[in-house]
């Protein structure tokens, strides 16, 4: 795993020495995955590419140092933990509705000695009541379809900040179907960046949505409504 990570980081123009803490995190996830459902990817090389380098590739599109970021539906910590490992000056809030996963992340980040990380067990649409428009950046990978995801994430981002949605490269229709939600919630798509994950032939996409206007107070709605009647 170490070699793939080193080569991948080099390809991305990132610090190869970070292969070591990234691998240490992978080992903690894989170990815990034996007793808890954290990831379906258990092959080490695949883990390195499809989890760690996929998240690292986000840094070719956006910077996180000095920024307050919330990773919505972080699960086993993706992309939040790799981003925090790679950006020592990032402040990262890891948010997930499954408290067992958040407990694991607290323990793992403690073992890795990662500071500047906040752990929140809760639902994104409820978290907005406490921390509305207080983050510079929101990230999210593999959580929900874009119209729903925008209602979970955009209310948390300050005007002038960004929401980075990690999607498959086959997401044109999904993006088109989210146009109304993005506009209604105060966002504007500023970039759609496709990238090939280093050391693989897999192409993924980051959709960059700028927060250009405040989100109207009636959003986010309760999850039942968000799901039943996506914007
Ligand atoms: N981002 C991770 C995990 C994806 S699985 C990855 O890419 O590997 C989706 C995660 O989102 C699950 O852990 C689930 O608990 C969480 N989730 C789903 N809806 C949520 C919500 N409304 N608020 C917070 N977390 C949510």
Describe, in plain words, how this protein is organized in 3D.
It is a single chain. This protein is of the alpha/beta class. Helices cover 40% and strands 23% of the residues. It is built from 10 helices and 7 strands. A 7-stranded mixed β-sheet has the order 3-2-1-4-5-7-6, with helices on both faces. Strand 1 (68-72), helix 4 (80-86) and strand 2 form a beta-alpha-beta unit. The protein is globular. The protein starts with a helix and ends with a helix. Bound molecules: S-adenosyl-L-homocysteine. S-adenosyl-L-homocysteine binds at residues 72-76, 78, 95-98, 101, 123-125, 141-143, 152, 223.
Strand content: 15-25%
Q: Please outline the major beta sheet.
A: 7 strands, mixed
Query: Given the structure, what is the number of helices?
Result: 10
Gap between N and C termini: 42 Å
List SSEs in N-to-C order.
Answer: HHHEHEHEHEHEHHEEH
**Spans with pLDDT under 50 lasting ≥5 residues?**
none
Q: Which geometry do the CA atoms define? A: globular
Radius of gyration, Cα only, in angstroms? 17 Å
Strand order of the largest sheet: 3-2-1-4-5-7-6
Helical percentage: 25-40%
Query: Class by helix and strand content?
Result: alpha/beta
Number of DSSP E strands: 7
What would the average pLDDT be, to the nearest integer? Answer: 97
Distinct ligands: S-adenosyl-L-homocysteine
């Amino acid at each position: 795993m170490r070699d793939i990570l080193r080569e991948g980081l080099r390809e991305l123009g990132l610090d190869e020495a970070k292969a070591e803490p990234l691998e240490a995190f992978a080992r903690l996830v894989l170990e815990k995955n034996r007793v808890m459902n954290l990831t379906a990817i258990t092959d080490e090389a695949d883990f390195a590419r499809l989890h760690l380098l996929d998240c690292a590739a986000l840094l070719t599109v956006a910077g996180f140092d000095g920024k307050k970021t919330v990773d919505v539906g972080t699960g086993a910590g993706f992309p939040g933990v790799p981003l925090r490992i790679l950006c020592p000056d990032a402040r990262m809030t890891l948010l997930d509705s499954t408290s067992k996963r958040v407990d694991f992340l607290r323990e793992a980040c403690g073992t890795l000695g990662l500071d500047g990380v906040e752990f929140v067990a809760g639902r994104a649409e409820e978290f907005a009541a406490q921390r509305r428009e207080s983050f510079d950046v929101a990230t999210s990978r593999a959580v929900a379809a874009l119209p729903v995801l925008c209602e979970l994430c955009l209310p948390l981002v300050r005007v002038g900040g960004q929401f980075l949605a990690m999607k498959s490269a086959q997401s044109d229709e999904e993006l088109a179907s989210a146009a109304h939600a993005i506009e209604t919630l105060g966002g504007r798509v500023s970039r759609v960046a496709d990238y090939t994950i280093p050391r693989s032939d897999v192409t993924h996409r980051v959709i960059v949505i700028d927060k250009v206007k405040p989100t109207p107070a009636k959003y986010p709605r309760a999850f039942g409504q968000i799901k039943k009647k996506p914007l």
